Amino acid sequence: MTILDNITYNPDIGKAGLYDLILPGKPGDDCDDLFVYIHGGGIENGDKWGERPVFNYLAERGIACASLNYRMYPNAKFPEFIEDCAKAIAHIMTEGRKVVNFKRITVGGSSAGGYLSMMLFFDPKYLGAYGISPRDIDGWYFDAGQPTTHFNILDKERGIDPLAIRVDEAAPIYFVDHRFEDPDTLPRIHFVWSERDMTARPEQTELMICLLKYYGYPQNKIGQTFMPHNRHCEYVAKSALFAEMIAGFLKGFEK
Questions:
Q1: What ranges do the domains of the chain cover?
Q2: Quick one: 2-254 is in which CATH superfamily?
Q3: Which of 91, 108, 135, 160 could form a disulfide with 9 if both were Cys (CB 3.0 to 4.6 A apart)?
């Protein structure tokens, strides 16, 4: 296993513009899967180091990982944190590929990282700025993300009660408003949420999945994991469990 820390994808934003690569073998080796992880923390806390045990566990099982930083409150505002993640993914798909020759790429995140991942998938303009379609990503893993406008955008930028529900350009579900064309080219996506998740998070996630099916997203490409008796992202701290959940999703490409 090889760990490459602090690769720069944007030199203009300091530590926020860095990501790490955790490789199963040596730089330059081939690898079937690269999992890109966007950390949680309410877009105000967290770091790319946070889930290192998960990445080590995956690397030991042949899965390369990338974990990225991005700007957060109070040093950023919508949509800068989404733009950062898009820029990091573009760098990973070009420069990162020179370090690990991956066959497939999956993007995901937990909590705020799940929200940011959904924004990147459902609003194509962010990756589109780098000539990338969300469909160019083989898989998307949305762990406990907020389908409506993120609570800290409401609180910190709009002065609205963070428990309020808003659906606008800062909400992933806002973009699920039409039938999906060329469904055979759509990537596999997966949603995770908990029985005792954040207020209204289970209901919002179920609504998102319902709308996707209504608008023709192939049901065999939508996965769901419901975590009974868990609080919001409680299972993430159980590194082996969370890593196996991710690995199980990636194994689906082999079927």
A1: 2-254
A2: Alpha/Beta hydrolase fold, catalytic domain (3.40.50.1820)
A3: 91
pLDDT, tens digit, 9 for 90 and up, residues 51-101:
999 999 999 999 999 999 999 999 999 999 999 999 999 999 999 999 999
Rounded to an integer, the average pLDDT of 178-185 is: 95
> Among 188, 213, 42, which Cα is nearest to 108's?
188
The span from the first CA to the last CA of the chain, in angstroms, equals 26
Angle formed at CA 65 by CA 67 and CA 27, multiple of 5 degrees: 115
Query: Encoding tokens for residue 30?
Result: 């081939």
The pTM (predicted TM-score) of the whole model is 0.97
